[in-house]
Structures are given as structure tokens and as C-alpha cells.
Amino acid sequence: MPLGISTSLDANGTEKDKAMRILLTNDDGYHAPGLAVLEAIARQLSDDIWVCAPAEEQSGAGHSLALSRPVRIREHGPQRWSCSGTPTDSVMMAISKLMPGKPDLILSGVNRGANLGDDVTYSGTVSAAIEGALAGIPSIALSQVYAKEGMGDSVPFEAAEAWGTRVLRPLMAMEMTPRTMINVNFPALPAADVRGIRVTRQGFHDYGRGSIVEGTDPRGYRYYWFGLHGIEHSPGHDSDLEAIDENFIAVTPLHLDLTHDASLAALRAAYHSAG
């Protein structure tokens, strides 16, 4: 069913859904600027906001769980917690232990940096939304692309701030297919320069995970540090990569069934002939 329940107007005359319970999370950590941006967006949509996010940055954590150590929860105020585990742990703890019932919607982000193409498989931001979708909760991941490396917390979120509710309201009004989630990427542009919203397919990068920086620590031991600068890609038509390259917001539906149906018949035939 669509997410809308009962609405009111805020001080600016914007329609809000008073009864919708929204859970916010991310992979950049509880204190990340993008989570504050997400909360500001969410509070334009509902009065019932809950937050459970990793205590520290978990970028690249994917859909991992903290299985080899205990997970600890810290309360920061009413309906606000940080979790010592991964983004997936944060969602699981929120819906299983911390909230009085399942949320109506999970929003994950706003990530500092793109989650485009096959990079969604590494993304803790996307994986938090995947966990929500597995739990039967409509879930949306949001990411802000940035223009250059090394910006740290100075990454501008202007496009996400200005366009966030315009992207989310149509999604909240529609019925999401079970075991699917939505991946949203905002281009690295001033809000006024964004050309609009484009619904896209997931693209693929040309293979290569950026760079691996090699160094030596103060005790003389070698280490390696993964960098993700400027991954080359050849944008496929109608892809999220193409949309961002053309200054559009990319809205991409993803589904969790990874089965390649077209290969089933060939595989069955191969085993039948071998047997």
C-alpha cells in the first residue's frame, strides 16, 4: 500500500504525514553531516523520526554483520541511538530491539559520495536499505556525488537538500514491490543546475577499483590503502552513471533476487547431459 496515512501542514505550508514512522540510518556514522541533511529532509515529511546509525564510519561495509564481536548501543536522546556495528546491524537493532514496531519507511544516507553502478555491492548505505527491504519495509538509499577527492566533511549537499523531498514524495505515494528498494544519487552540482529526475537502470563501471596506495608505517611495516578516485566507466544508455554524467538525479529500482533466470535452462541442461 502507499505510505501516506494522515497529513498536516508544517509552518511553511508543506504537507507532512504525521503518522508515518521513519527510521534514518547511514554508513558514514552517527555524527556525519549527511545524516543531519537526511534528518532535515525527513522532518519535512513526518513528525515521527527515529535514528539508529553506526557509531563510526562504515563506508564499504556492504551487507556485513558484526559476527565476531558484541554490538553495543548508545542512546543520544529520545528515539536516537548509535550502534557499534555495521549499517546492517544498525537496522536490525532498530527494528528488533529499539523501536516499538517496524517503521513505515527506512531512509539511508545521505551518503558522502556516489553509490552508482556495481558500487552498490560495496555500499553500506545501500545495504542498510537492502536490510530494510528484506524485512518487508519500503527502503530508500540516498547519496550525494561530489566533484573531487579529498573534500572530507566539506562535501556540499546542496542538491540533496534542495531536491530531497521532491524525489521522495512520489516514491512514498507509490506501492513498492516486495524485496525491492530504491537507490537515489544526487549530482555534484548547485541545486539550480540540476536538470531534473531520471529513472534509470543500474550501470557498470569499467573494472578497476581506483588505486591502491602503498606505504610504510612508523614501525617499518608495509601497509596498503584503497582509494576510490575517478573510477572509469562507459555509461550505458539509461543508466544511473549516464544520468549523473548528464546532470540528472538518478533514481534506480534494485531487486534482491540475484538469480540470473536466463542461465537456468542452460545450467540444467549442462548437468542433465553430464549425468
Q: Helical segment tally?
A: 6
Query: Helix share of residues?
Result: 10-25%
Q: Beta-strand percentage?
A: 25-35%
Average pLDDT for all residues: 91
Task: Provide the CATH superfamily.
Answer: Survival protein SurE-like phosphatase/nucleotidase
Could you give a short account of the major beta sheet?
10 strands, mixed
- Assign an overall shape: globular
- Spell out the helices and strands N to C: EEHEEEHEHEHEEEEHEH
Second-tier CATH architecture? 3-Layer(aba) Sandwich
Structure summary, number of beta strands: 12
Secondary-structure-based class equals: alpha/beta
Would you identify the regions where 5 or more consecutive residues have pLDDT less than 50? none
Oligomer: single chain
At the fold tier of CATH, the topology name is: Stationary-phase Survival Protein Sure Homolog, Chain: A
How far apart are the termini?
Answer: 47 Å
CATH class: Alpha Beta
- How many individual domains? 1
Gyration radius (Cα, Å) is: 20 Å
Features:
275 residues; alpha/beta; 6 helices; 12 strands; 27% strand; globular
Tell me what the structure shows.
The protein is an alpha/beta fold and 275 residues long. The chain has a single domain (7-205, 233-274), classed as Stationary-phase Survival Protein Sure Homolog, Chain: A (3-Layer(aba) Sandwich). Helix content is 24%, strand content 27%. The protein is built from 6 helices and 12 strands. The protein has helices at 33-42, 87-98, 124-134, 158-173, 240-245, 264-274, and strands at residues 7-9, 15-25, 46-54, 73-77, 80-83, 105-112, 139-144, 180-186, 197-199, 211-216, 222-227, 249-255. The strands form 2 sheets. Strands 1, 2, 3, 4, 5, 6, 7, 8, 9 and 12 form a 10-stranded mixed sheet that branches. Strands 10-11 form a two-stranded antiparallel sheet. A hairpin with a 5-residue loop joins strand 10 (211-216) and strand 11. Helix 1 crosses helix 4 and helix 2 (87-98) packs parallel to helix 3. It is globular and about 60 Å long.
